[in-house]
């Protein structure tokens, strides 16, 4: 098996802002694994919140490159266990795991959802994210991209006002993501107002470690609450079951498709709603997420839709939200 790593700087259509940061470009690491004439692709993006850069990811993988290339690859689960044993970050493991799954499917000539015995005839529509901005610019972004479901990024002292104004311009479903910016009191007070404005659920309103606050929210919020920053790895699912109505799994944070599938299974056993989200990945990462959508209640895989220029071909998301899956195996990814 041969491994190649390349850095891409992905330009965004608009400045993307959340409660704690803003950016116009997204650094991304693309990993290619080559074996038996097939190439699988995986991706992990940089993230200041988790102190992840392309350079740190590349350095991690370069240290174990020879061991990776010497690994006798048969199937993704064993490869993932091998990567975990090398003490790599989950972001690095994710890129390699996504590439391994894509490679595996291409070798078998089957898409991953088919290998996993899931039926892709029914699946949730992705939301489209409206980043924090002036109300006028947030309205303009919605008008630029008419969509049935919007995720609205919040975290200001005028959050309800923002949603109230956006509601004047669309009948779409709203989801609200405060990215840890609210208190429990704010969340409980905002929830009925936002419910009346057509908000479906709240995502991670409190700081990731505010479990006491989340317990109060769980008992008093009139809207369901989905964990994001509080749900990073497999062991977090059990704890989230006591404090949230559902979880948002990020492949980069948990370490790829392999652990994500186990998290989905466990969440369903605990009667949690399940969402998978993205980190402004290109079509490389989005095509991997798409393989999971038959198993999900919600999905946030609009990363490539937010880019000015994409770098890959794979899954296509049409204007009505319908997903066109590639006919090739794995996640169906090819680099442009």
Quick recap of the structure?
By secondary structure, this protein is α/β, with parallel strands linked by helices. It has helices spanning 54-63, 65-70, 76-84, 90-108, 112-115, 135-144, 159-167, 184-196, 211-220, 236-240, 251-254, 257-269, 283-290; strands at 2-18, 21-35, 38-45, 128-130, 149-153, 173-177, 199-203, 225-227, 246-250, 273-277, 298-300, 312-313, 316-317, 323-324, 334-335.
What is the CATH superfamily of the largest domain?
Enolase-like C-terminal domain
Compute the number of structural domains.
2
Q: What class do helices, strands and sheet pairing give? A: alpha/beta
* Mean pLDDT score: 97
CATH topology of the largest domain: TIM Barrel
Number of helical segments with 4 or more residues: 13
% residues in beta strands: 15-25%
CATH class of the largest domain: Alpha Beta
Binding site for Mg(2+): 177, 203, 228
Domain Mandelate racemase/muconate lactonizing enzyme C-terminal: 135-224
Organism: Arenibacter algicola
Protein name: Dipeptide epimerase
Could you walk me through the main structural features you see in this protein, from its secondary elements to its overall organization?
The mean pLDDT is 97. The protein starts with a strand and ends with a strand. The longest helix has 19 residues. The protein is α/β, with parallel strands linked by helices. It has 13 helices and 15 strands. A hairpin with a 5-residue loop joins strand 13 and strand 14. Helix 3 runs antiparallel to helix 4 and helix 8 runs parallel beside helix 9. The radius of gyration is 19 Å and the shape is globular. It has 2 domains: 109 residues, Enolase-like, domain 1; 221 residues, TIM Barrel (Alpha-Beta Barrel), CATH 3.20.20.120. The strands form 4 sheets. An 8-stranded parallel β-sheet has the order 4-5-6-7-8-9-10-11. Strands 1-2-3 form a 3-stranded antiparallel β-sheet, sandwiched between helices. This is Dipeptide epimerase. One of its GO terms (molecular function) is magnesium ion binding.
């Amino acid at each position: 098996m041969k491994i190649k790593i390349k850095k891409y700087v992905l330009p965004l259509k608009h400045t993307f802002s959340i409660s704690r940061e803003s950016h116009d470009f997204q650094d991304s690491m693309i990993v290619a694994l080559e074996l038996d004439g097939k190439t699988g692709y995986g991706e992990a993006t940089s993230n200041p919140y988790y102190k992840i850069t392309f350079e740190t990811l590349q350095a991690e993988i370069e240290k174990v490159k020879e061991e990776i290339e010497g690994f006798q690859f048969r199937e993704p689960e064993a490869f993932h266990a091998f990567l975990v044993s090398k003490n790599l970050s989950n972001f690095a493991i994710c890129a390699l795991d996504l590439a391994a799954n894509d490679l595996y499917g291409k070798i078998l000539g089957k898409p991953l959802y088919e290998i996993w015995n899931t039926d892709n005839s029914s699946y949730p529509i992705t939301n489209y994210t409206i980043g924090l901005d002036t109300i006028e610019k947030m309205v303009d972004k919605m008008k630029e991209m008419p969509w049935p479901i919007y995720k609205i990024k919040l975290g200001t002292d005028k959050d309800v006002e923002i949603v109230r104004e956006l509601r004047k311009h669309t009948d779409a479903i709203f989801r609200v993501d405060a990215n840890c910016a609210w208190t429990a009191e704010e969340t409980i007070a905002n929830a009925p107002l936002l419910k009346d404005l057509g908000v479906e659920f709240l995502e991670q309103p409190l700081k990731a470690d505010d479990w006491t606050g989340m317990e109060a929210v769980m008992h008093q919020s009139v809207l369901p609450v989905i964990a994001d920053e509080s749900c990073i790895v497999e062991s977090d699912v059990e704890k989230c079951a006591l404090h949230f109505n559902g979880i948002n799994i990020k492949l980069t944070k948990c370490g790829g498709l392999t652990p994500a599938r186990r998290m989905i299974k466990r969440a369903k056993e605990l009667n949690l709603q399940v969402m998978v989200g993205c980190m402004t990945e290109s079509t490389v990462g989005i095509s991997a997420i798409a393989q999971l959508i038959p198993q999900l209640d919600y999905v946030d895989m609009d990363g490539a839709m937010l880019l000015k220029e994409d770098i890959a071909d794979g899954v296509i998301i049409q204007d009505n939200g319908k997903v066109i899956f590639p006919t090739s195996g794995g996640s169906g990814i090819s680099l442009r």
